[in-house]
Amino acid sequence: MDALQRIEQALEAAIAKGMGDDSPPLLRQAVRHAVLTPASRVRPRLCLAVALACGDDVPAVTDAAAASLELLHCASLVHDDLPCFDDADMRRGQPSVHRAYGERLAVLAGDGLIVLAFENLAWHTLRHPERLAPLLMIVGRAVGLKDGIVAGQAWECEEQVELSEYHRQKTAALFAAATEAGAAAAGRNPAEWRTLGANLGEAYQVADDLRDVAGDAEELGKPVGQDAAHARPSAVAALGVDGALERLVGLIREALDSIPTCPGADKLRALVVGEMQRLLPPPIADDFAQRLAATGH
Length: 297
Prior knowledge:
By secondary structure, the protein is mainly alpha-helical. It has a single domain, classed as Farnesyl Diphosphate Synthase. The chain has helices at 3-19, 25-36, 42-53, 59-80, 97-101, 103-124, 132-143, 149-154, 163-185, 194-214, 217-220, 226-229, 235-258, 265-279, 282-294, and strands at residues 90-91, 94-95. A two-stranded antiparallel sheet has the order 1-2. The model has no long low-confidence stretch (mean pLDDT 92). Belongs to the FPP/GGPP synthase family.
């Protein structure tokens, strides 16, 4: 079974176990719409890749960690699309949850997915309780009030924002959690893997900022031009396209250099570079590849 199959199977199982047949039907539909719409699953794939590089000795725990991270990411998207934030019509090429099911069910679906993520971790660590506490700390911090995506979203409510801090909390937090959780799920030291995830997360946000000004809405499955429309902090607004691309190259270079020595290091590096090229619009992706190659990577 490849990584994406593992993730989709784990997500299906988590929703089935967490909701059951007697849950409110519309809530069930909203949750499935939020989670099971086809997506790239970047964060859980990163979690699995790190676990595999570390040995992946208990795949059930790895799959639970990966699925829980994706459940939390999906919850954040549901809330981010709400009228009080972006008021987005589309997500992943489909109507956003609040457009399809109404604002009340969107709020409830997002809240429920957050709870389900932690339940899912508990269910699958019963036979390996020593791995639960580290995973709870990693995942909890990634969504929390201090350094997590809740804090990151809240910066959009402030008049003045420090761009790197905003990116670190809104996006990099879950990426850092993905690499740390992959190591913790495999019984390894998560601290060694945090730099990789944190840099990738910030790089992903910079790439998303570039896509917002140079991407195609139909291809992305969501509107473009949203940063300017909502006056959101953006690497492109702060640095320009060329400066943002240079920042992106620097973050990826640092991320690649931070990968600890392990049997799967080369495969992981290839995954990181390939994923970043996939994210960027074609002309920018080519420029990124050339600049990264010039650094020796």
